[in-house]
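Data deposition worksheet. Section B asks for the primary sequence of the deposited chain exactly as it was used as input, without tags or linkers unless they were present during the calculation. Section C holds the resulting structure in token form. Section D is free text for depositor observations; keep each observation to a single sentence. Incomplete worksheets are returned to the depositor.
Section A, Depositor: J.P.
Section B:
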Amino acid sequence: MRIFFLIILLLFTVLLSHGCKENNTSEKIFPVADSTLIAQDSLAQIKDTVQQNPVISYKFISPPRQNRYKFLIEEYDTIGAKIILALNRLDERFIRKPDSIVVPDTILNDKLLYSPFPIHLGILESVKKILLVDQRVQAFAAYKFGNLVYWGPASTGKKSTPTPNGLFHTNWKSKKTISTDNEEWILKWYFNLENFRGVSFHQYELPGYPASHACVRLLEEDAYWIYYCAEQWILTKDGEFVIAYGTPVIIFGEYNFKGIKPWLLLPTEPEKALVNELELTEVINKHILTILSRQNERERILNPQLSLQQ
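Section C:
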């Protein structure tokens, strides 16, 4: 009888302990965009961290030239290796070339934490989608309603064939096309920006400096992302006129071919590697009325019943 009583008491204690644990935690598992699972509390912490702009320090390392990308994966995991590629504006092929590369002291599974662009831009809160390309820092960013949702490295036009600055839109796209400059150049995930000059987003080599023939070169995963995220133009039936513009794209800034690459200043002068929010707002302000007007016109064409109700 005494043994039976002790067993009952033990079971009661275990159940009570388990019940307290459930009552003291609200942790739930949610899938995120990159298919990893993050607890709800952890996700909230990451969002808070992003909003507070966590201080991440950077340093130079000189990894072995042979199998350097493999070395990065072994040292920093695949996520860290991709972040390091983006920070150095390099792809897997060219990561072996520099004597030293910039790496962060902390690797977190959130690429936005390493963005040179501001997390939020108030001037864009009414803009559904927009892509920004800063030639000075050789990077692009995607914003939705003023919030940064994506960024990546770029390689814009070299000195003899510069990428033009200004307001553009994503026009037409092709999963694969052949360059008009060289038939041997296969351009994947191509999205045209300037139809008559052939300026576009597309995947191609990223050597760590401006090297294109006026296009905006991207890593394949970034070109793929833009290919499916951005919108195409809408033309008249005869194809002669644009009746609705695609996703707005602002290209701005000037790369200093004689100076130090901005991202190489991350360890010593990190502010010079970032896109200044005030300067960026001034650039966008020059085009914001046109962007909003064209956005409204596209909505009117795609949703004529909505415009009639208004």
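Section D:
The mean pLDDT is 85.
The CA atoms of residues 223 and 294 lie 24 Å apart.
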